[in-house]
Amino acid sequence: MENGPIVTVLHRDSAPASDLMAPVAARAEVRYTEAAGLADALTGADVLFLYDFQSRAVPGAWPAAGALRWLHVGGVGVDPVMFPELQASDVVVTNTRNVFDGPIAEYVLGQIISLAKDLPGSLRLQQRHEWRHRESDRIAGATALVVGTGSIGRTIARLLRAAGMRVRAIGRRARADDPDFGSVGTDLHAELPGADYVVAIAPLTAQTRNMFDAAAFAAMKPHARFVNVGRGELVVTDDLVAALRDGTIAGAALDVVDPEPLPTGHPLWELPNVVLTPHNSGDFHGWRAEIVGAFTDNFGRWVDGLPLHNVVDKSLGYVPG
How confident is the model at residue 160 (pLDDT cuts 50, 70, 90)? Predict the structure, then answer.
């Protein structure tokens, strides 16, 4: 569209479907690019839509972004774009909050049930044609500690409560009567000893990087299980491996790891008390259309001069609650 804003869309492998992007194309010039062409596509662009929201290409292309006014991340985590030059700029950053809340909460509940009932162990016995009676744990009455009190953490807490679990949380501000979390604490190590399940969904910031280290795992119960749906870098991976090997904790379900993708031969592949998934806990059928819809809705607001949804506080690295 002549004389309209310029919108650059960074994708990998395939661009968003043209019919989904039609509301933007009707009001803007749209440039589609993969990472190698990002700098050229950013020249003169007003808006950058990170459809490939895990890309690390933006810092390298930043010198070409002199006209950029708004950057929209197609996922929830914005750590790939929280580099100093962008943080110091006037560019507004938004994310795609709420699209993945329900699917990730379902994943967490599913993994907790799977760990409690040892479904991976049952599958291994089945594959060996071995009929062995075993007992399992109940999740009703067990305590889950949700580390991260954003919208995904809230949705997780609601679903776990509906399944009969007791829920507590760790956040930036302590409070006693939160409608979803019950009590919210700020001291991770003080709360870990009371948890049967620990769910990591905190954003990755300087304060949360490596928060789950040897001392954190040592503070957990020996029968506790760890579920990570946040970022792999929240965890010191070698410390997690050691805790799982020596029985400091009973097991883990990991949708995110550090490094990612997990290299061939890494010990996490072989540990019998670990369930791994490839960073897809929120990826339901149709999720790509949902994230494009979230962007086109926000783009309409931006063009019309209305406040944008899900504006990231760049000093914090996430959308404040």
Answer: very high
